[in-house]
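Whiteboard transcription, Tuesday session. T.W. wrote the structure tokens on the left side:
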């Protein structure tokens, strides 16, 4: 019996004439295509998208400042698009406040209403000592005023769900089209006591209640903490008492 012949093989990925012969006869597999063209194509596409979306998120004043840098027709077209978006938002902004909930009205005010818009429900702590709950109550008011096309509701947790653990408050329930799309139990899922309005705005974007390009979304340079002391580090005070009085 003849002994098997050992065919010398260069590195199988090497571009050599010998490897080409071996590939032709099926001794070694075809060399996989180089990823370089695909990477270059992806980079070109990324640059194209960046250029096309370079005006996303800019308000009308910022667009006016770009008159010397952008094509006039393109800028006017984009300005009209932005005006139309702002008009649509104003038309849809029918809420603009935090709605106190009562359990008997929950189905109508939340589940059924979610066919029209995103509904965000805040389950608050029954005590005045839950700092996370107090922080979120304040942020809730700011969000409701800023995003009037989204309905923000609020109810004391144990009045909504009997026996609901206080340790799980605050809890956020997000509804759309009759279903719960997401729930957030306490601020640990966000930034704890350092949670800001901008963090909640990112949640609005993640669930689809806002677009990334929405001109109302806070930018990093605009972020600020309106109550760094009174809510995050102080002992329970008039803020908590005010919260309790809202739901009596």
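and on the right, the sequence the group agreed on:
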């Amino acid at each position: 019996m003849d002994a098997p012949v050992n065919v010398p093989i260069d590195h199988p990925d090497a571009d050599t004439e010998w490897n080409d012969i071996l590939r032709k006869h099926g001794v070694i597999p075809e060399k996989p295509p180089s990823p370089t063209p695909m990477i270059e194509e992806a980079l070109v596409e990324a640059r194209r998208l960046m250029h096309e979306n370079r005006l996303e998120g800019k308000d009308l004043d910022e667009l006016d400042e770009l008159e010397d840098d952008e094509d006039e027709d393109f800028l006017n077209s984009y300005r009209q698009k932005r005006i139309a978006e702002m008009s649509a938002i104003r038309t849809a902004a029918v809420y603009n406040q935090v709605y106190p909930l009562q359990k008997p009205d929950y189905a109508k005010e939340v589940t059924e209403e979610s066919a029209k818009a995103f509904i965000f429900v805040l389950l608050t702590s029954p005590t005045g000592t839950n700092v996370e709950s107090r922080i979120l109550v304040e942020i809730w008011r700011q969000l409701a005023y800023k995003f009037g096309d989204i309905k923000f509701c609020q109810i004391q947790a144990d009045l909504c769900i009997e026996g609901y653990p206080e340790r799980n408050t605050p809890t956020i329930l997000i509804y759309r089209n009759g279903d719960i799309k997401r729930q957030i139990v306490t601020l640990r899922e966000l930034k704890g006591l350092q949670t800001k309005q901008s963090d909640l705005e990112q949640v609005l974007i993640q669930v689809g209640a806002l677009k990334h390009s929405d001109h109302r979304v806070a930018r990093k340079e605009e972020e600020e903490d309106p109550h760094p002391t009174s809510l995050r580090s102080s002992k329970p005070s008039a803020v908590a008492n005010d919260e309790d009085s809202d739901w009596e």
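Someone added at the bottom: Residues 26 and 77 are 58 Å apart (CA to CA).
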